[in-house]
Amino acid sequence: MSPYGVWVKSTHLELKEGPYYEQGVKCQTCHMTQAEGVSADVGNKYPDVWQHLFHGAHDPGKVKGTIELRIHPDIREAEPLEVIRFTVALFNQKTGHKFPTGSAEERLVWLHVEATDAKGRTYHLPVDRKGFEGEDFTIAANTLAYQDMGIPLNLPDFKGIQRDGVPEGDRIFRLPYLDPQGRMTIMQWNTASQGPDYRIGPRETKLETYTWSLPDALEPGPMRVTASLYYQKLPLPIVEFLGVPKEEAEAIEVNHHTTLLTILP
Ligand code: HEC
After folding, report:
1. Which pTM does this prediction carry?
2. Which carries the bigger pLDDT value, residue 52 or residue 168?
3. How far is ligand 1, taken at its centre, from the CA of residue 111, in Å?
4. Residues with beta carbon inside 6 Å of ligand 1?
5. For position 48, what pLDDT does the model report?
6. Domain boundaries, the chain
7. Which numbered atom of ligand 1 lies nearest the CA of 99?
8. Nearest residue to 164 via CA among 125, 111, 121, 115
9. Which residues contact 131 (CB under 8 A, 6 or more apart)?
């Protein structure tokens, strides 16, 4: 808990609230899986030895496929200047807690949607707003945050750094930690409150929509639209600012899905 009484690490609470807890699924079920083997070099063979895998966020194989996603359009054939609406469904099929969890103040999960026309030109689609309170924290923007890093750095006038470092308009699944002034922070001790918890719960499905007025210049022929979900341990602007190893900002692709449409002349 932070000095302001906010739970800054709540993975265990997320499991308790979710569907797995009542079914007797524990942390070990997924993080120390059981297999046939020996528990010591000279020990007996058991059918269910707990494997000390402890694989979490630092293992891309654990993160990959955590969310299953599908993108589909409301119409399959359209002419330039028509309006198409895409729906992306994201189903959390793998975690017992929310995704992302743990050091949630540092984790970034974002959904990027891009169309490629028959000429190979690409168009980035921004997510539709839903209109909930604090939604701005969940849509990538060119805005500053983390101004309270000026406290340990002894820079009282610190303006902050770029908040997200991912393409503007992409949906971000996160739990914003806020300082006493309501600005995003990665410092647990300075967390006075939290923004909207827009993470994907265990076995939850979230829907995102993308309404797109097709540009006039779109090339007739097949058009591909791909939704990709990425996971990052620490936002790139913070990694660059603090000078920590670049791997901390490596974007792991959680999943992607592509749909095909026809653009009529
Ligand atoms: C149903 C399977 C399942 C259960 C139960 C489960 N986890 Fe996880 N956990 C995962 C998966 C999959 C990931 C990788 C995706 C991610 O980072 O969330 C993960 C990741 C994590 C991470 C890394 C998160 C990060 O971003 O740093 C931590 C820490 C963690 N789990 C702790 C726990 C704890 C503590 C419990 C019990 C309260 C628990 N897990 C229960 C499946 C599970």
Report:
1. 0.92
2. 168
3. 20
4. 11-12, 15, 20, 25, 27, 29-31, 56-57, 62-63, 66, 94-97, 99-103, 107
5. 58
6. 67-263
7. 18
8. 111
9. none
